[in-house]
Amino acid sequence: MELTGAQALIKSLEAQGVDVVFGLPGGAILPVYDPIIDSAIRHILVRHEQGAGHAAEGYAQVTGRAGVAMVTSGPGATNIVTPLADAMMDSIPLVVIAGQVATSSIGTDAFQEVDTTGVTMGVTKHNYLVTDPAEIPTVVAEAFHLATTGRPGPVLIDFPKDVANATVRYEEPGPVDLPGYTPPGEADPAGVEAAADLIAGAKRPVVYAGGGVLKADATRALAAFVAATGIPVVTTLMGRGAFPESDRHFLGMPGMHGSYAAVTALQRADLLLAFGTRFDDRVTGRVSAFAPGAAVVHVDIDRAELGKVRRAEVPLAADCRLAIEAITAAVRRRGTDAYPERLAPWWAALEEWRTRFPLTYDRGEDGRGVGGQPGTVKPQFVLEELRRLTPEDTILVAGVGQHQMWAAQFWRFEHPRTWVNSGGLGTMGFAVPAALGAKVGRPDRMVWAVDGDGCFQMTAQELVTASAEQIPVKIAILNNAYLGMVRQWQHMFYEERYSEVYLSPDLPDYVRWAEAMGGVGFRVTGPEEVAPTIEKANEIDDRPVVVDFRIDSMEQVYPMVPAGASNDDIVVHPSQAHLPR
Predict the structure, then answer these.
(1) pLDDT band for position 3 (50/70/90)?
(2) Would the CATH topology of 2-169 be identical to that of 379-557?
(3) What is the domain class of 189-356 according to CATH?
(4) For this structure, is 112 an active site residue?
(5) Annotation: CATH topology of 379-557
(6) Is 111 among the catalytic positions?
(7) What's the rounded mean pLDDT across residues 291-302?
(8) Does the annotation count 456 as an active-site position?
(9) 522 included as an active-site residue
């Protein structure tokens, strides 16, 4: 079959089961946009290339499939570098196709030329520069294989214009064969037995579960392990939803803004079962002081993570699901009858911490979260009401900052792939386009994005995309008129010297902004308006909705572990500061 390179690319995407591409055309990628007209692939025209990348990430996070984005050369490619870096940090499967100038012009500083493979080498799992149109089917097949296997991540295909215009005989690619690329599978049996031995002897064990549990579809395996052992569970920011949070074994999220029980459990543990997590600095605090008395069993599909931050007594390079299942079987062979009695003192301590230091905030005299200033509400109250009034399987998307932490603290995740946020890179502006992508990936689910006023202003142009494409996402702006997390640090560590963090509660007018972009806008200024407004927003299902929640501008996120400090130095809510620890 004779095809142009552009047609071969689209056909190759179809062969990979791609159903949607987020993109923005330009000169170098223009030949590829012609055959899209005749394809069953849905193309969603974003308003900025960064939006394409984050939308593809949102799609990938809720579906488990590779998200696909397509941009042009030069600034189109550089505009998507941030989503590539974001996906790399959070292990999100992404395939990005970037147009490139003709091969004969590469290196001449041609119009809109950038060394895209060079620029993106450090923020992709792999990248390709296609120079032979006959390679297109194989390159595409390899790109999707790399993006979705092993530790998932972003792959970029740099696609010159002359390659797109060339004629080629299209042939289906054979099986993917990448010498040297062999992601781990089953865990080493000796390591599994060693892990089971440590579990059998532990008195204060904790499961420290990360996003790798979700990536490996290991949530059922984790639940079975906990049922067999009775060991408590903490889930990282990227691991939320890996374990049902109504389960009594769930202690919360660890880390800089984690629950006191989760943070302290890790510190006092004698065994950490680190499943699919990378000992991130936001969780460990000062590494030398992290979980000082704990042995570590570390399961990760990326061999490079083993021993990178914390030495493990039992390092297991393996698929997380297969490893947890093997460890569970080994534990059961030893018998679990003695576990409840042995862990009883540990659970007594955990319950005491959980009871004494729950997540809390100043609820005001009416208990409904009246803000510190007139005409405001407490952000935590907004999250509690939003959780109460939405279906259990609602997908929650967050930007980055205080609102992200309040969302993580005051939402309860019962299902996997219902929490979408930027973890490792901490990308402001993530929420709106990612919510759009999440809704495209799961149109059957309600999708709410919780955003800050600073974050929202970075990528809110994608509301136009949502309106034009009839993608009914819902955006809750926690509007405190500040770059809130920066202000909190200036408040706590810079003697309240607030440098360049004030925005404005009224500029822009978010209600009119939403309306101008084809959506519906609401404003909430008091606690009595929170529930009725959320209910109104939930009823709208044909266009995007934005709710401007005017929140207390001086509210802080507690608990907090100061940067560089030990987790033992966790700062609790002021109302709990007098309590013994």
Answers:
(1) very high
(2) yes
(3) alpha beta
(4) yes
(5) Rossmann fold (3.40.50)
(6) yes
(7) 97
(8) no
(9) no
